[in-house]
Design goal:
The protein is an alpha/beta fold. It folds into two domains: 174 residues, Alpha-Beta Complex (Aspartate Aminotransferase, domain 1), CATH 3.90.1150.10; 252 residues, 3-Layer(aba) Sandwich (Aspartate Aminotransferase, domain 2). It is 41% helix and 13% strand. Bound molecules: pyridoxal-5'-phosphate.
Length: 459
């Protein structure tokens, strides 16, 4: 059968005008921002590919839901709608709302992790690992080796290497492992999915060792779409069915609903165990708010409930991932080194390959993101040594194999023409890549330094 192009399953009802800047203005802006794209003013950005977090375009249904906010302090109608939607689509019985994903991570880590515990996961995520460490745990990476290789085209780079789990349990014992943390569509690996088969194997491993399985479900629908497209025997299922199946394999979940679920703010901690729920309710009142709003307004919980339903539609996912792949193919066709296969939420530029003259200690990905902004007003972000931070014990920089710039695509926001301009800008920077200079810190925050760190060019 002839293959049809995908197109967006929506039309545009309202637009937001963008400011165009000159090269001189952008040079001044990046200098003032300390060569950190997080410190740029949004006004000075043309196409904002910093993140896919909280920047999706809500639907008219979601905006209508905003008007239906029940802002009662306790027992808001929108909370029950959200909770029931989570049970219907994600299987979890109990839900504690939080202001965003890290609020859920904080509560979960405090409840489950004891000093000296080990928490295996399929690659770290910045805030997730930090909360595990603050609670006294050590993160242990158990993702397959292919995930660390930008040139491997393994279809499920988010998979867990069960042998690595075995090695850990043999070394420290199951009582030192409070839970295994599995992310769907692993952000730091380049938005790469885990297969259903692998997740089932992890489930079996957890059952065998009596260890809980926790799901970082921030991008579960994107992961489900990849399973439908790539995994043998899964083609007949809908994204919605696969999402449910993934969640049902796990015991609890943390969610940043600013991603998949297309709201500007919000998250939750969900679980099936009543005792865990009770303890989460005790902590949520300390850090977030009462257990029926946990840091969210009623209107935001309503928009989230509607966003969950929209996020698991096959045609939405086809357009979402289709747009990311469109950008990826343009770059690949032009010979730009990018992480393969294309991710679910982003295309990752291989900064080590694009700027081979800059040693990793001079932050090539940070420098490349700054150069791309100066070129065209496109804002990307670093995912390399700056994001990885320092080892708490030795004080040395972590030197991750992946030194990447992330072009993150917000959901339902930009057009194909924006993707064309993005690809053309990256290709132009490639042409003068050898002139891009390395960077050094002028200010280095102790934690999550990529957010507020400042740099200058190395002479
Ligand atoms: C964004 C994100 C988080 C943290 O969520 P916030 O809403 O930003 O606090 C956790 N895990 C993953 C994989 C994420 O992408």
């Amino acid at each position: 059968m002839e293959k049809r192009s995908w197109a967006e399953p929506y039309k545009i009802k309202m637009v937001e005008l963008l400011k165009m800047t000159t090269l001189e203005e952008r040079k001044a802006a990046i200098k003032e921002a300390g060569f950190n794209t997080f410190l740029l003013k949004s006004e000075d950005v043309y196409i904002d590919l910093l993140t896919d977090s909280g920047v999706g375009a809500m639907s008219d249904q979601q905006w209508a839901g905003i008007m239906m906010g029940d802002e009662a302090y306790a027992g808001s109608r929108n909370f029950y709608h959200m909770r029931d939607t989570i049970t219907e689509y994600y299987s979890y019985q109990f839900t504690v709302p939080t202001h965003q994903g890290r609020g859920a991570e904080n509560i979960l880590s405090q409840i489950l992790i004891k000093d000296g515990d080990y928490v295996p996961g399929n690659m770290y995520f910045t805030t997730t690992r930090l909360h595990q460490e603050i609670a006294g745990g050590h993160f242990v990476d158990v993702i397959i080796n292919e995930a660390h290789d930008p040139d491997s085209d393994h279809p499920f780079k988010g998979n867990v290497d069960i042998a690595k789990l075995d090695r850990l349990v043999n070394k420290v014992g199951a009582e030192k492992i409070p839970y295994v943390c599995i992310a769907t569509c692993v952000n730091m690996a380049g938005g790469q999915p885990i297969s259903l088969e692998n997740l089932q194997a992890v489930r079996q491993w957890c059952d065998k060792h009596n260890v809980m399985l926790v799901h970082d479900m921030t991008r579960v629908a994107e992961n489900a779409y990849f399973i439908q497209q790539r995994e043998t025997g899964q083609q007949h299922k809908s994204v919605k069915e696969i999402v449910y199946e993934i969640c049902a394999l796990t015991d609890a979940a943390t969610m940043s609903s600013k991603k998949d679920a297309m709201v500007n703010i919000g998250g939750f901690l969900a679980m099936n165990d009543a005792t865990l729920y009770e303890r989460a309710c005790e902590l949520v009142v300390v850090y977030e708010g009462l257990h029926t709003y946990g840091g969210m307004a009623g209107r935001d919980m309503e928009a989230l409930a509607i966003g969950i339903r929209e996020s698991v539609q096959d045609n939405h996912m086809q357009a979402r991932i289709g747009q990311v792949a469109y950008l990826g193919k343009k770059l690949e066709d032009a010979g730009v080194p990018i992480v393969k296969p294309y991710g679910g939420h982003a295309i990752f530029l291989n900064a080590k390959a694009i700027l081979p003259h800059i040693p990793q200690s001079q932050f090539p990905a940070q420098a490349l993101a700054a150069a791309l902004y100066v070129e065209s007003g496109i804002r990307a972000m670093e995912r390399g040594v700056v994001s990885a931070g320092r080892d708490a014990q030795t004080g040395e920089n972590f030197m991750p194999k992946l030194e990447l710039v992330r072009l993150t695509i917000p959901r339902r926001v930009y057009t194909q023409a924006h993707m064309d301009v993005t690809a053309e800008s990256v290709i132009r920077v490639m042409k003068y890549a050898s002139q891009v200079k390395g960077l050094k810190f002028t200010y280095e925050p102790k934690m999550l330094r990529f957010f507020m760190g400042r740099f200058e060019e190395v002479a």
